[in-house]
Predict the structure.
Amino acid sequence: KAGVTQTPRYLIKTRGQQVTLSCSPISGHRSVSWYQQTPGQGLQFLFEYFSETQRNKGNFPGRFSGRQFSNSRSEMNVSTLELGDSALYLCASSTFSGQGPSGANVLTFGAGSRLTVL
Amino acid sequence: QKEVEQNSGPLSVPEGAIASLNCTYSDRGSQSFFWYRQYSGKSPELIMFIYSNGDKEDGRFTAQLNKASQYVSLLIRDSQPSDSATYLCAVKGAGNNRKLIWGLGTSLAVNP
């Protein structure tokens, strides 16, 4: 069973540019979450999608956006990049539907996309 | 006070010893608790999770919850050098659609 696939793995951008990151979840997983990870802030939740609907959103500015397609693949976009956006962006998929036991959302992470903003 | 707190470490233990990692949380209504391991340069992977109704043991790993004091611990018995990693604690509140709150992680070093 293929894991969570994120592309690209590494990218370098300059301030003011925009970037789009892609995530293909495990087959059958309909929930996709995005995280930003930096050494000082740890894992910061960006947003979660389920069946093409954004279900939860973290405390990030509107420059960060995302979407999910009908095949559960997800993209996130960051516009007007800032130096502080340099981070590892992780995508995680799960089968969690929002119903049933609250602990059901076990996450499987992709390898991440490492973004460097110069 | 952060919602989920972990001692950043590094926690250093000799090979074969028991490593004890702790995580405190502020939401008394939290219902499920997760431990993930992250090797340097890799993404987090789930070790185990427990609900608020009990502890769990899986091989060398045991997760224990102390609801009164609002902390969850991960015990690693017979620690191996391959256990050297950062251990992340995540907590989810009650009800549906509650997002996970993550600690910053504890770095563990198991010395041969």
The interface with chain B takes residues 33, 41-45, 48, 55-56, 58, 90, 98-99, 101-103, 105-112 of chain A (CB under 8 Å). The two ends of chain A are 37 Å apart (CA to CA). The mean pLDDT of chain A is 91.
